[in-house]
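Consider the following assembly input.
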Amino acid sequence: MHRREALRILTAGSLLPAFTPELFAFYRQAQPAPGYALRTLDAHANDTVVAMIDQIIPATDTPGAKGARVNEFIDVILTEWANEEERRNFLNGLAGVDQQSNALFSKDFTAASPEQQMTLLRSLDETAAVARARVADKQRTPFWEPEGRDRQMQDDFFTVFRRMTLHGYYTSEIGFTQELKLQIIPGAQHGCIKVGAGSGDAEG
Amino acid sequence: MATTTYDAIIVGSGITGGWAAKELTEKGLNTLVLEAGRTIVPERDFVEHVPVWELKHRGWDNRTERETTQPIQRECYYACDEYSNQFFVSDKDNPYSFDPGKHFSWIRGRQVGGKSILWGRQSYRWSDLDFEANLKDGIAVDWPIRYADLAPWYDYVEEFAGISGQAEGLPQLPDGKFLPPMEMTCVETDFKNAIAKNFDDRILTIGRSAVLTRVHKGRAACHYCGVCHRGCITNSYFSSISSTLPAAQKTGKLTMRPYSVVHSLMFDAKSRRVGGVRVIDAQSKNTLEFKARIFFICGSTLESTRILLNSATPEFPDGLANSSGELGHNLMDHHMGSGASGRMPGHEDMMPFGNRPNGIYIPRFRNIKTKQKDFLRGYGYQGGSSREGWSRGITKVGLGVDFKNSLKMPGPWRMGIGGFGECLPNHNNYVEVDKEKLDAWGIPTLKIHCGWGENELAMSKDIAAQAGEMLAAAGAKDINTNHEITPPGLAIHEMGTARMGRDPKTSVLNEHNQAHDAKNLFLTDGACMVSSSCVNPSLTYMALTARACDFAVSELKKNNL
């Protein structure tokens, strides 16, 4: 369907616009460009990222973070969004995962068994929770000051990694439409309905 | 230098410019609308249905570039985002200044439709509690009008715009001509009941919103995509583009001229009238002049005042129509920031459906029947409830299959409310032009001197405390009470600087929004406001504009202009 035709259907001011499957398909047709070439993560760093995101959000009855190519989102953010310090902290943190893996299992993270990887990630996860609790007590700069904005990469490494993984996954087409079953155009509003997939808040 | 004569010239095409265009053209006037910004083509520019995965930074925005071009506009973080920054001005091209330590957030939209394509759409009537406030408190000057003067015009604009809401019969928040209300969540209904039970001076109602809950005047009902500030291809929310400008276009009397940055007005001292307007073409930077019989300045509060300040003459050295000396003074905005939120136990098996572009409202209850010791006037709360989404997982311990499955389902209910407080008019909150600092079109910019007073600061404290108490009474857990105050400007309800009044010695405009000093000059946007109420002002701007247009055309017919 052409964009103009889709808009014509939506703007027909008669009854509630008819949201045909074809119309929904129109809004979903844009796919992330295949064949994205990594710009910041080298091959080994990318393999580490892929192994980590695959453990954090694995494939279940829907694809996981690996299937949603969250590593490519992370590379985009590291390349275009992060400042020098944030990029360095992230890459150092990633190298730190390998160091801990070597200390514990005498091999890089990617070479460790899935169980070993999970053991290490759970340890990182608990350490990060402690770090977050410490920061939570501090007064944050308000959002109307530049220092109060764009703080997504200002936490400890693993919290930043979790945030990028979750954000990358649930804002991907797979995460949004297959996992959360969200609709861009619900077509109606109800105060409350019985809990089920597909009616959550798109903003997370 | 091109010169064309129209019956009417309107500066600006936002909420008030759009209304003026509709009213004046429908009354037969050959009307030119001068808009500083670009044309908006909804099919090209509206992005409300673009999936987030099509955005390069998935909503995190192009931070590096935008901190250079829009560091002020970005303070409006909930709307000036990766989708909608295109509807906010470039701070680089549109500079202004303020005093050290007295930040003023000037959020602007320059395009056909102005900020009407971005606004929050909350639409409330003012009452005599507001119109009589200055007189009763002995502050500033009295409003030259009362609710009875404006009530028929509220009816008129509501019937056209389409406002959804629930009638409540409150004297301080008069009911309007409502379309069916949107639904409250079960948690909001519980909260409403808890407030009614525990506080005999306050109620909770669904927000009154300029979003259509059914088909209205050829515009489709809302489909609840929920992100109105990215545009609305179905015209389901009120904006100039969806409503007033198409009506004006239909008359065949409208000439819309985008890319027309108004420099100043030309006053003819002999006839005591504005004769023309000086415009810089934003693309060619050529200077043009346009002439008309009447002028409606609807450029937004501070832009309209800036035009008058930049139109000084030997007779009016401090700005056109400024014999009172009040032009530029009494700048107001609502103060926000204080409020509370908490987790609401129960209703685990229920969740909202649809992205409701609206919230709940707790109308003003302070200084109505009783009197507060430490502040005058009052505040209202806006807020809502939702269940936590996937982002709760960011700060939760957990990984793997179970973690992923837990995030598939909604998290705990949360309820939050934030106050909008009235700001007292204060002569010392003012703007002036800075002839040394020019914008991208060579026009002198504004120096803004504005800060909160004792009354606002005391009220802000009460807003936080009462919000916490109400949530506690409703059984909220982990209540987070937030006591802070945003900089003036950030509520984007800036008002005053060319106030109405009865006395030409103390006001700029009369009871018909007509300049005391120039009979064919009208200002109908927020600049005209005499006090700020605590409710959102846009609906009142609409009613004032329609009323002023009616007066102007009848005067024109009587040859009084």
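Chain A touches chain B through 76 residues (CB under 8 Å). Ask yourself how this observation constrains the way the partners meet.
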